[in-house]
Amino acid sequence: MSISMRRKSHALPLDSELDQAGEPFAAPPLPYEYDALAPVISADTLRVHHLKHHQGYADKLNELLAKSDLRGKSLEEIIFATAGDPKQAKIFNNAAQIWNHSFYWQSMRPRGGMPSSNGASPQLASRRSTPPSSSGHSTEKTLSASIS
Fold first, then answer.
1. One-letter-per-residue 3-state SS of the chain
2. Domains in the chain, start-ordered, CATH in brackets?
3. pTM of the predicted protein model
4. Could you list the pLDDT tens digit for every one of the 148 residues in the chain?
């Protein structure tokens, strides 16, 4: 689906989960426990990011909507109504961050993707090359050292 078609239909991938029209916005519950992504992301890091940052965007959006004609609209309606409007940038940014964070949480899962045999992701492994330097160090060695 192209961007122009998506705008016409006003469909975002998380619409049903984030449709809180008429209610104060809140960070939706995570689809897993806070410790489910450890050791890659610690429970403390996940908890702070979800409860402080994600919920902070929701709290700020609720505050901004209290003085707006967008109050009572769904998150998707708010995002599409404010996109590209400099006067509505604060509302757009907070609404979009709620959506972004919700998408982020859905993009990860416990025991997710499998690393390659040398520890680099398949995408990084396919980009290996020797950088144009006199050091002779390859990007592969740099990637392996930084990932392990």
1. CCHHHHHHHCCCCCHHHHCCCCCCCCCCCCCCCCCCCCCCCCHHHHHHHHHHHHHHHHHHHHHHHCCCCCCCCCHHHHHHHHCCCHHHHHHHHHHHHHHHHHHHHHCCCCCCCCCCCCCCCHHHHCCCCCCCCCCCCCHHHHHHHHHC
2. 3-109 (1.10.287.990), 120-148 (no CATH)
3. 0.65
4. 334 333 334 444 455 555 556 678 999 999 999 999 999 999 999 999 999 999 999 999 999 999 999 999 999 999 999 999 999 999 999 999 999 999 999 889 898 765 555 555 555 445 444 444 444 444 344 333 333 3
